[in-house]
Amino acid sequence: MKILMYNTVPEEQPFVTAWMAKTGHEVVTLSEPLTVDNAGQAAGFDAVSTQQTTAMPAPVYQILAENGIKQIALRQVGYDVFDVPAAFSQKIRLSNVAAYSPRAIAEYTLTQLFNILRHNKQFERAMATGDYTWAAGGQAREIYQLTVAIIGVGRIGSVFAQMLHALGAKVLGVDPVYRAQNEVFIEYTTLDDALARANVISFHTPLNEETRNLADQAFFDKIQPGTILLNMARGEIVDMTALETSLNTGQLYGAAVDVTPNENAFMNQKQAVTDLPENIQRLTQLDNFYLSPHIAFYTNTAIKNMVEMALNDAVTLANGGYTDNEILR
Ligand code: NAD
């Protein structure tokens, strides 16, 4: 089978090569995401795969279908990049890699929480000027003293909750889906109750109509003054204007985001700092705001799993078979 793999990054290449040797299938890699302009390059291939944060609009599926492609295997969790109804109308089956390494994201979320708690950015900036005093950053709190609300207790949220519980934190969970096995380390509650009690709020939901702009100004008005906000899920969950206001007023003690609503304008690219979106330039000046370039997933385990699982699914779906990773609605 011949597979066209869009938006391939150099780190994926060794795993692609190993997968080809193991399976006997051929993979051709492109460095651009799948768009209307290059969907036609799938002509002559049996299957396609991509990983990207840019949306794939309706004409993409039509062009793929006209070229005999029956599926798209996404090498990532978040599949809001698909126009699912448009794909289904062209009889294109879709898959994602639902769990390549939930630990990778959970560990990074924990890393950023500790960075905020320990004032690492303040200390780093002060030391860069020769200021090695304790006062430069200030005292930290220890994690066992904190109540952490996890909004979205799925694959990643559950792992993060277990880690926090093991460290002695109190963990609240908000999720329309109740998982009894999580009761060992989570107290399930309502969103309003969680916002009223939490010292830390961490988002691990998909982006959908309920979660888009969930953290708006009304949300920030309900939290305790001095709360920490973490968003490693999807940028559009948090209203960045309300976030900035809340950081400036002290309603937020600190925030760390790995994703932003406007991330396609600058993430995974090199540019002059002055070319960054203005809100990002302002926010990154703050000592208590941590931005990272969508790297929470970025570990050796995750890259290997996302390549191998997506390519296996590409073959399975192109052959008319079934995989647990298929997106059914
Ligand atoms: P998942 O589907 O396993 O879990 C999501 C959970 O959110 C589910 O339990 C679901 O019931 C719950 N949920 C849905 N709507 C909700 C709402 N309105 N309120 C509360 N809970 C709600 O997904 P996952 O694999 O844990 O991924 C979570 C998020 O992390 C996704 O947005 C994904 O795109 C993102 N992600 C980010 C990175 C990164 O590198 N930053 C990497 C992987 C995944």
TrEMBL record:
Keyword Cytoplasm in record: no
Pfam families (alphabetical): 2-Hacid_dh, 2-Hacid_dh_C
Domain of life: Bacteria
Keywords carried by this UniProt record: NAD, Oxidoreductase
CDD domains documented for this protein: LDH
UniProt entry tagged with the keyword NADP: no
InterPro entries noted in UniProt: D-isomer_2_OHA_DH_cat_dom (IPR006139), D-isomer_DH_CS (IPR029753), D-isomer_DH_NAD-bd (IPR006140), D-LDH-like (IPR058205), NAD(P)-bd_dom_sf (IPR036291)
Residues of the D-isomer specific 2-hydroxyacid dehydrogenase NAD-binding domain: 111-296
D-isomer specific 2-hydroxyacid dehydrogenase catalytic domain: residues covered: 4-326
An example molecular function term from Gene Ontology annotations: D-lactate dehydrogenase (NAD+) activity
Family: Belongs to the D-isomer specific 2-hydroxyacid dehydrogenase family.
Protein name: D-2-hydroxyacid dehydrogenase
Provenance organism: Leuconostoc lactis
